[in-house]
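A reminder before we start the practical. When you read a complex entry, don't treat the lines as separate problems. The point of joint prediction is that each chain is placed relative to the others, so the output describes one connected object in space. Small molecules and nucleic acid strands, if listed, are placed in the same frame. In the example below there are two entries. Take a minute to note the order of the lines before looking further.
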Amino acid sequence: MPSLNSDSPVHVLHLGEDENRFSPDWMTAVEHALDQVVANPKPLIATGGGKFFSNGLDLDWVMANVGELDAYTARVQAIFARILTLPVPTVAALNGHAFGAGAMLAIAFDWRVMREDRGYFCFPEVDIESPVWLRSFRAR
Amino acid sequence: MAALIQSKVTPKAAVGSMTTGHRFGASEAQAVGIVDAIASEADLLGAAVAHVEPLAGKSSSTLGKIKVTMYAGVVQALNEAGA
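Here is the predicted structure of the whole assembly.
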């Protein structure tokens, strides 16, 4: 789960050690971290702990909760919007793969620094017929 | 979502990433501007800190207003999509 370290002159948001997908609990932790950053404004760095920065949406949860798709995507997009306009300098440190929504998450930050020897940045949506993205991309 | 990506990367990079599913390694991502810098694993966090720590003194309220203005259209798109 994401955690925020605010001990240094910058906040460091650790997105987790696994695929760091956008599960409801994961998003709750990120939202709380953003609240803390806004309450104590200083630069924000986000990074992951293993092979992934973030592998994107929690498709298992989505497929098991299809009735909540609209609320889920609204929540994901609200996180993007919040990071995009966060009132502090922000940078995503891409320790590993940033795929799909994980790549969009990285894009929402002011800057991106990427590990030179591992991990891919990718928007794979064109290769998967995910109903989530078809719905979201249709709107804009 | 498209508006978010298109607000941050060049049109060429947007076409090259959004319509292809291409997997960008770090050097390639930097070459097209998707990422701003690359670093070794050991230097990654330090490079990120170096990017933003010099900006720590900026006015938070002003910076927030500037970003809200810069991205007004994108935020509107993000709030409308899926509704």
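Discuss with your neighbour: The CA atoms of residues 5 and 40 of chain B lie 26 Å apart. What might explain this?
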